């Protein structure tokens, strides 16, 4: 762990003291960053009534529907008192990379729950409050074009002792510019011509850039999994609720061919919600769930599981075609991202495999990611219909009642984080009442309980065993059709010093420099 603004500590793994550095100063005349700023924001925004501010990770600050107690200890220290032991808490998204706003800004909007005012606040939208807190200072933002920041001459980290000499004059660039170049070929040409310092590279172009003088290519492990999300809500295809049906789709896709051909070898087959490079991944007991490779790929294993899953439902095979209770051939929708050629090609290959191995026709729809979230992931009960529970924007209640604005069957638009450092952070994806469960998954086994037990276990070996049970159950139930764990491929001008081919490369980007 490399503490930035604050350092966590605990004696029991349940109460965490968060101690801020003394030299953190807000801009805009708000003075020193204190524990009061944090406690006020946590209580009134992160845990605000009815999530009035629309904070997307509000669920992280509650346990069993109750807010996690947070108390100020002194000017620079506050305590988070968890209802249970959690040894991985400091590495979870709730604290990792967490930001804050000055209490003086928030107080103008909290009393009236003025979300619109908060969103329009000029001090926030132009980052006037950031003071010495970051390596760069806001300059200008031309929407859909570029974001420009300039070197912060007051960056707090240069005053911190014991970090190593590379931090003493960071950052080493006068400006930092993020450009929006919508066309993939234009982005790659900009990298090739030295017009940008760094850019992502699609798998199909990786070897070309490896052979290109002037550009260094870094292949980095990354935590995001590519999977087919099945809509198990009332406006999806009902057979997806059966484990055997989801297994059938996993068996219908040759994951090794996808990894080698579509991703040019820059991806590994995925079978559960954890990458192999994670210390929590367990091989034992997984062999029987390696769907999509060897004997568990192809028409025979796929259709055998499909027949098992649809038994007694009215669905059946008419020759090689799956037909519904009305006798009509089954036709399903599959949504892909309009922003990624690789994602669209993935959808096309999946459609071919599903039709060939399961006898199901697939209609592909391409869509921007934000549109998919708004119309297909966000769900709620019909107007005037009461529900017994709601987990928020992406899980508005039981799957038979809460549905999205538009119907859908399958999607590869959104990737999910496997959280290799803290696997229990993915529990919300696989809990019926999880706040990200937009697809309406209801676990058949005790997956949420295993997650909770692992999260609360201090002994590392015991925790690893429990996570092994979690990952085996997920591999069996296939809440997603696990497909691939692609690598992150980044190209940089060869004069840039700092990037590495490691997981989470970039945590120290403030120390990168040009070798000239």
From TrEMBL:
Q: Is Signal there in the keyword field?
A: yes
**Any Pfam family the entry gives:** SBP_bac_5
Alphabetical keyword list = Signal, Transport
**One Gene Ontology term from the biological process aspect of the record:** peptide transport
Which InterPro entries would you find in this protein's record?
A: Peptide/Ni-bd, SBP_5, SBP_5_dom
A GO molecular function assigned to this protein is: peptide transmembrane transporter activity
Q: Which domain of life is it from?
A: Archaea
Q: Which GO terms describe its cellular component?
A: ATP-binding cassette (ABC) transporter complex; periplasmic space
The entry's family comment says: Belongs to the bacterial solute-binding protein 5 family.
Q: What is this protein called?
A: ABC transporter substrate-binding protein
Q: Which organism is it from?
A: Haloarcula nitratireducens
Phylogenetic classification of the source organism: Archaea, Methanobacteriati, Methanobacteriota, Stenosarchaea group, Halobacteria
């Amino acid at each position: 762990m490399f503490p930035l603004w604050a350092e966590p500590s605990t004696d029991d793994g349940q109460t965490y003291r968060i101690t801020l550095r003394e030299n953190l100063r807000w801009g805009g005349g708000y003075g020193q960053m204190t524990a009061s700023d944090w406690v006020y924001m946590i209580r009134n925004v992160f845990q605000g009534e009815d999530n009035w501010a629309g904070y997307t990770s509000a669920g992280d600050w509650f346990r069993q529907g109750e807010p996690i107690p947070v108390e100020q200890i002194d000017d620079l220290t506050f305590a988070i008192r968890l209802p249970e032991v959690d040894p991985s808490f400091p590495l979870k998204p709730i604290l990792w990379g967490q930001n804050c706003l000055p209490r003086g800004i928030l107080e103008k909007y909290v009393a009236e729950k003025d979300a619109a005012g908060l969103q329009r606040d000029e001090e926030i939208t132009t980052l006037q409050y950031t003071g010495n807190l970051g390596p760069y200072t806001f300059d200008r933002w031309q929407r859909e074009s570029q974001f420009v920041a300039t070197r912060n001459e007051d960056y707090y980290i240069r005053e911190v002792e014991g970090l190593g000499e590379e931090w003493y004059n960071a950052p080493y660039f006068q400006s930092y510019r993020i450009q929006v170049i919508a066309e993939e070929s234009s982005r790659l040409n900009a990298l090739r011509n030295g017009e940008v310092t760094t850019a992502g590279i699609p798998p199909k172009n990786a070897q070309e850039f490896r052979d290109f003088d002037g550009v260094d290519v870094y292949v980095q492990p990354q935590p995001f999994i590519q999977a087919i999300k099945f809509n198990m809500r009332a406006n999806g295809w009902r057979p997806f609720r059966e484990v055997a049906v989801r297994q059938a789709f996993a068996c219908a896709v040759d994951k090794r061919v996808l990894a080698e051909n579509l991703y040019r070898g820059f991806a590994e087959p995925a079978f559960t919600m954890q990458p192999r490079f994670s210390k929590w991944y367990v091989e034992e007991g997984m062999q029987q769930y390696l769907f999509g490779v060897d004997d568990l790929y192809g028409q025979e294993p796929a259709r055998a599981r499909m027949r098992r899953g649809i038994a007694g439902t009215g669905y059946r095979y008419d020759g090689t075609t799956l037909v519904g209770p009305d006798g009509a051939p089954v036709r399903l929708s599959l949504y892909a991202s309009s922003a990624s050629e690789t994602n669209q090609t993935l959808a096309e290959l999946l459609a071919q495999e599903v039709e060939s191995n399961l006898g199901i026709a697939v209609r592909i729809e391409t869509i921007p990611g934000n549109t998919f979230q708004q119309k297909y992931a966000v769900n709620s009960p019909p107007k005037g219909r009461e529900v017994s529970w709601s987990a928020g924007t992406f899980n508005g209640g039981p799957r038979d009642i809460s549905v999205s604005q538009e119907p859908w069957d399958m999607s590869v638009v959104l990737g999910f984080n496997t959280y290799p450092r803290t696997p229990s952070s993915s529990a919300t994806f696989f809990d019926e009442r999880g706040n990200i469960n937009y697809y309406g998954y209801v676990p058949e086994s005790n997956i949420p309980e295993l997650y909770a037990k692992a999260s609360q276990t201090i002994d590392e070996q015991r925790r690893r065993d429990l996570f092994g049970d979690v990952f085996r159950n997920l591999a069996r139930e296939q809440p997603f059709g696990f497909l691939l764990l692609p690598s992150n491929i980044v190209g940089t001008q060869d004069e840039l010093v700092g990037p590495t081919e490691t997981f989470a490369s970039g945590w120290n980007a403030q120390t990168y420099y040009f070798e000239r």
